[in-house]
Amino acid sequence: MTLSMYQASVPVFIHALTNLSTVLQKAAAHAEAKKIDPSALLGARLYPDMHPLVRQVQTATDLAKNSSGRLAEADRPAHEDTEQTFDELQARIAKTITFLQTLTPAQIDGSEEKTINMTIRGHDVSFRGQPYLLYFAQPNFYFHVTTAYAILRHSGVEIGKMDFIGPLQN
Amino acid sequence: MTLSMYQASVPVFIHALTNLSTVLQKAAAHAEAKKIDPSALLGARLYPDMHPLVRQVQTATDLAKNSSGRLAEADRPAHEDTEQTFDELQARIAKTITFLQTLTPAQIDGSEEKTINMTIRGHDVSFRGQPYLLYFAQPNFYFHVTTAYAILRHSGVEIGKMDFIGPLQN
């Protein structure tokens, strides 16, 4: 199979979000086993002016949804940032994956030169599809998924890098 | 330009390593300004059984070097893990980028189905090139680059996500 814009986006995001779901399941189980208030993990952060776990998950899911949706030129559902529990974060991931599964290779393949207009921190930016995916969406997405993992690891949850990588795809 | 295995690997790794270099420059400058022993940052980690900053940088550079090298079927230089200073980490990044720059699209494009045999934690694994890049090399690479950033952010170095993302590629 030839690498394509769809192959490098939708299934990659679904795979990583599925692994994030596993990591969050382990965190919820850890809180229950250790009688930790789950909000201590959900609100944990690596530095006072960094975002807490909940926001890392919200941002990661939005990056997957919005970048794939923009490349597909599909209507994107709005996901309000109201999650306060592990179950609600799992629901957020699930609805993001459900949306991603509606996108087809026909919508995204060939989007290398597609113009993506967006606003980043108050500045209008115009990308072409390929650099948007490779240099903005992908690293940004992995930044937040990894930071979610790092917050939990830093908080003592027993997870390992293979939880982040997930089942090997051969 | 059509997305290709080269486009999704070598220049992406070079860009992210260049940004990591910037982050490490800011960390070194922070240590100097605050009269912090640089080894306090170089040896910092997010949890006692996680790897410290130096090892995160070593692993990130090796993932870029080895994954691109395997896809290209190129001889890969061995980089001994001897770095103990920020300057030495910068040199490690520089020599990794120099190696990556020797690899050509002709060597890597079309490697989607190439067989990649390697050993992961004592287990022999055989990948095809595309899943190797998308589901193993890329997330693994970003995991370590982000963790390096997170260690420094957690240690109070004044860096922001745009240092991690780097100059926007349009």
Automatic annotation (TrEMBL), chains A, B:
Transmembrane segments: none annotated. InterPro entries: DinB/YfiT-like (IPR034660), DUF1993 (IPR018531). Gene3D superfamilies: dinb family like domain. This is DUF1993 domain-containing protein. It comes from Pseudolysobacter antarcticus.
